[in-house]
Amino acid sequence: MTRPFYHDGMREWQDATDGRRVADALEERRLHRTFWDEDRALITSAPFFFIATGHGQHMDCSIRAGDPGFVTILDDHTLEWPEYDGNSMFRTLGNIARNPHVGLLFLRFDGQSRRLRISGRATIHGVQHRVVRVECLEIYPNCPRYIPDLASGTPSPHVPREGHVPPAPEWKQRDYIRDILPADDPFRPK
């Protein structure tokens, strides 16, 4: 049995902003538990990703980086990477040792590639030569709406700025979304 994708706090915000219909549609259409081809391409070509871990009040966010291909996909819902030499603080591994629940974020700072969020359970294998393996329980692609293109120095056109009207994000124009956007959404069809 899997946990609900949204907890009560998320639902409260969705209801307060008339966003529950959109949230439910995104869960139905975008949430998956096995890797799509586009997920595999992003993960296996990634030179880095971010990892969130926590235990009690000890929350942490870190980056893992290596040559593209350092993250290996083992099967339809499992990935792993080597833990390279660090600063001996072991904040990430220490949290995983006490709480296996992790959040991973894969993205390219190119202003156009989708982000990929993964929630899963991590295990640590080895001591001197460590590998972290994650069973991916929720795989969720996100739009790149606010991500800048760092290579060109171009900011996202979607960021609100004085004198600038941001364009509609692609996902808000999808057939299964556009007519259920919140009543006050500026991109809802009139």
UniProtKB/TrEMBL annotation:
Entry-linked PANTHER family: FAD-BINDING, PUTATIVE (AFU_ORTHOLOGUE AFUA_6G07600)-RELATED (PTHR42815:SF2)
Chain intervals for the UniProt region annotation (Disordered): 154-173
Domain of life: Bacteria
Domain Pyridoxamine 5'-phosphate oxidase N-terminal: residue ranges: 36-125
Protein name from the UniProt record: Pyridoxamine 5'-phosphate oxidase family protein
Organism: Sediminicoccus rosea
Stored InterPro entries: Pyridox_Oxase_N, Split_barrel_FMN-bd
A Pfam family that the UniProt record links to this protein: PNPOx_N
Gene3D superfamilies: Electron Transport, Fmn-binding Protein, Chain A
